[in-house]
Amino acid sequence: MNPDALSAALLAVIAPLIEARRPGASDGLTSADVPLERPKNRDHGDWASNAALKLSKAVGVNPRELAAEIAEALGAVDGIASVEVAGPGFINIRLDAAAAGALAKTIVEAGAAFGTNKTQAGRTINLEFVSANPTGPLHIGHTRWAALGDAIARVLLASGATVDREFYINDAGAQMERFGHSVLAAAQNKPTPEGGYAGAYIDELARRVLAAEPGLLELSDDEQLERSRELAYGFQLAEVQSSLLQFNVHFDVWFSERTLHAPGPNGEPSLVDEAVDRLREQGHVFDEGDAVWVRTTDFGDDKDRVIRRSNGEYTYFAADAAYYLNKGDRGFAHKIYLLGADHHGYVHRLKALAGAAGDDPEKDIEVLIGQLVSVNGARLSKRAGNIIEMDDLREWLGTDALRYSLARYPADSPLTLDPELLRKRTNDNPVFYVQYGHARTHNVGRNAAASGVDRSEFAPELLTHETESALLGALQEFPRIVAFAAEVREPHRVARYLEELAGLYHRWYDNCRIIPLGDGEVEAVHRTRLWLNDATGQVLRNGLDLLGVSAPERM
Fold this sequence. Notes:
555 residues; five-stranded parallel β-sheet
């Protein structure tokens, strides 16, 4: 019996009991109103519910009295061994061994689908993260946002949402001009312009630009700048894309900021022009001092925002507005932005923008702020000189160690990684510990096959050892962990769950044999335990995949 089946049974028992006491009391009652949770102390049973405490007041009965009625009725349900009432009205439920053990076969047969759920079904989500300027290599901050953003996308997809991972390319504006001037200066063997970009990577880009355009320095000044900027931009963006792919991060959309400012194919207004008109139609745009403003204070912003200056130039806020509206035009009802620690000021601004666009700032947009990350002993990039590059980190620590460690903590938690620990092949290293647990399940499977133990028989009532009960209990929790991680946008909950599961598996491995001792005969219990072993391996594999981490079969 899985948690969903138990929850349905609990609801089926409770509904008529409260309806009998107060007609209409069961109307609209759902499983969410009768929650189940795993007791911290396993002596209290497999599951516990505070449903009687939640519902007793509405039907005018003592919570313990209602709990006793629920316990009596629930005890008659197939697969439930016992139900007890504790304290003021808690209900403790213990499943019989066969009902609990049946989960092992369910997991193996479900395979990669186990853990998926429909809690986010029907939601269309645009998830924007990383969104670095294409003027240099990705750094350590981008590395964290890449790991977190991709893991958030994975748990949302596993929970039934439609998700597009989107990278906003900041390829318009002053920083691109400085970038172009910097590359051209390097190509001309001149010093870096004031306020420009420096470093060996600029020299590399200049060499590539000259190789691609041998006659560059013979062009007019304006043509030299344009070609330097555009060629270097293409090379640098390709490097960013390659770095992310090597980090196992895929983006569905690469959105260029330039498209917001470009007129339509037949001379139609740009998306930025349209954005001003559309916000004005919503009644939140006003003119003052020859400038155009958006009254974002109506939606909690600390001040109103200029969208077009008195000289006719658009502000960054105008591009933000056009981009936000464009996401809605593409069918995304919900937008999630994952921004760096230096973007706290954007939270109210973007929420106010959603309100001005006619959306609900509390429902249609989320802005997640990621805190800073550092790595002890990490060296600055030899090419860029003033950053720690993603590629250097990946080559030093490995994709798996980096991704797991960065997804193991909440986004709003400042983080310092210990490279000495992450490079260890010991149980002190969390990613090694979980991956080793998975590899061990495969090793057990190989040894079982060599000893004649297969899955030709399944007798779940034989899984009675206390470590088997604990392991099955944890396996039951996986779909709920995934669903909750998706709901709160916190993939670190999956990582912490995997560590707990690996620990329970290792303890089970130490206590319960799959291969008979000596010349002992292969029995039903050995074959059934192989199902449990393989089920654990499947869940570890599924969980690691949600974090974008590999699940090796040998270590």
